[in-house]
Amino acid sequence: MDMSAAASRLGVDVVARLERLPMTNYQRTLFSIIATAWFFDSMDLGLMTFVLGSIKAEFGLSAAQAGLLASASFFGMFLGAATAGLLADRFGRKPVFQVSMILWGAGSLMCGFAHSVDALMVYRVLLGFGMGMEFPIGLSMVSEIVPAKSRGKYVAILEGFWPIGFIAAGAFAYFMLPVIGWRGIFIALAVPAVFVFVVRRMVPESPRWLEDTGRVTAAADVMNHIEAKVEKAYGRHLPEPDVALRKPHVHADRKALFAEIWSGIYAKRTVMLWTTWFFALLGYYGLTTWLGALLQQAGYEITKSVLYTVYISLAGIPGFLFSAWLLEKWGRKPTCALMLIGSAVAAYLYGQAAGTRAPIEQLIAAGLAMQFFLFGMWSVLYAYTPELYPTRTRATGSGFASSIGRVGSLAGPYAIGVLLPSWGQAGVFTMGALSFAIAALAVLLLGVETKGRSLEDVSH
Questions:
Q1: What are the b/e assignments for 251-271, b being 16+ CB within 10 Å?
Q2: How far, in Å, are 8, 99, 125, 196 from residue 103 at the CA level?
Q3: CA-to-CA distance for 334 and 340, rounded, in angstroms?
Q4: How far, in Å, CA of 102 to CA of 373, rounded?
Q5: How distant is the alpha carbon of residue 306 from its chain centre?
Q6: For residues 9 and 249, what is the distance between their CA atoms, to the nearest angstrom?
Q7: Cα–Cα distance between 373 and 201 in angstroms, integer?
Q8: Is residue 245 pLDDT above 60, yes or no?
Q9: Contacts of 37 (CB under 8 A, 6+ apart)
Q10: d(CA 112, CA 91)
Q11: Which UniProt keywords apply (predicted)?
């Protein structure tokens, strides 16, 4: 048999063999490893919400300067997400994922030793570059390992580690900020980057990516390894592959990955995703990055503002759990639209409470509702995005969508800093609410449903 025939046969087998696997502790272990790296990433990024007020005070920054500093990591994420997607589709998921962890760890460490606000800004860009690399790769890895019947739930749960990491960052800052300062916190959060050695040892390369690039022997080795581990955990023989999933495999020109996301059925999906990511992240990061600092500006001391922000963020946990359940029961498209519309309404109400100096109980109640929908939005967005592209361009498509979102997250905190003096808190939260409404409209008008379908059925 010649190599192309063997590759075609193997490509058919890999998809069918993966999709028929039951979920066992082996896949859950792989998921947990990726999710742990994701958790530490979210801690590093979310930390700025809790230490921005301290940094602003130490360096004597204006609101606009503080907003620019808060946006620095998002500029790095913009560059990292686009770069990582292309690299991962060309060179593989696993090596790029490892490099991303090293970069964000180095960036966090250097932030702790920054001697000036300019140096801190540069190091935040480096930290953001590593984070931006990790997100589309982690999504692609989980999407390509977990079978269709469980894929949405697990990708949504993966995103759930974002609010957990955010809350952990707040709790860590609350207890440790008075002890070691914001510099010590950045240094401490660089340590988890050594987790890269666990990823290197235990997580395999995506067999879908290997077969898509024609790496017959490597794909066969990985599939045999995965099946052996799953069968051992399952405790009995695996079911036979579904013959309906056996489709001829066609290798794509790997030099035209970016062009493909703008061709055929993918062009409409790309427009929807880029619009949704940009406006969703514009609103989200514009508002949440400033939550702690805005409470301080309203007259609450640093420790109180951190504690109240942590309280508000707790609603993110039931938010992402509800979203993870709903997207498998109801579907990706309607759940995404619901979470965005809910975020818009809650953000507006929070802004009204903040702008009128309402009692803290009312402010926290509005904040709880806002974070419930915001983190629910994240769960669907991350589950939905990688499903809309084929394996050959999945990381590229997800990476550029995330990258465009980082343009929004770059603009959001800076825009809040510039507009806050004239618009007030009610005005800037209204701006965030409008951003979420535009994102919801894009999903409703342009989105397609992917619930319960294999990745190969959604795309071709």
A1: eeeeeebbebbeeeebeebbe
A2: 37, 6, 10, 11
A3: 10
A4: 32
A5: 23
A6: 8
A7: 37
A8: no
A9: 97, 101, 134, 138, 195, 199
A10: 32
A11: Membrane, Transmembrane, Transmembrane helix
- Using CB atoms within 10 Å of the CB of residue 64, give its burial: 0 to 12 exposed, 13 to 18 middle, 19+ buried: middle
For the record, the structure tokens of 55 come out as: 């940094």
* Residue 17 contacts residue 266 (beta carbons within 8 Å): no
- What top-level class would CATH report for the domain 254-459? mainly alpha
* Of 269, 260, 277, residue with least CA distance to 450: 269
CATH superfamily of the domain spanning 12-238: MFS general substrate transporter like domains (1.20.1250.20)
CA-based R_g, the chain, Å: 22
What residues contact residue 409 under an 8 Å CB cut-off, 6+ apart? 71, 74, 77, 281, 282, 284, 285, 286
Structural domain boundaries in the chain: 12-238, 254-459
- In this chain, the answer to whether the domains covering 12-238 and 254-459 adopt an identical fold is yes
CA pair distance 304, 125, nearest whole angstrom: 29
Confidence tier at 442 by pLDDT (50, 70, 90): very high
pLDDT tens, residue by residue, 343-400? 999 988 887 876 666 677 777 788 889 889 998 888 888 888 888 988 778 888 888 8
Helix, strand, coil content of the chain in percent (nearest 5): 85, 0, 15
Lookup: tokens for 372: 């419930």
**pLDDT tens for each residue of 294-316:** 666 656 665 566 677 777 778 87
Render 299-345 in DSSP notation, one character per residue: T--HHHHHHHHHHHHTTHHHHHHHHHHHHHHT-HHHHHHHHHHHHHH
Q: Which amino acid belongs to residue 177?
A: L
CA 424 to CA 416: how far, in whole Å? Answer: 9
Whether 408 contacts 381, CB under 8 Å = no
Cβ neighbours, 10 Å, residue 384: 29
Neighbouring residues of 400: CB distance < 8 A, sequence distance ≥ 6: 81, 82, 85, 258, 261, 270, 274
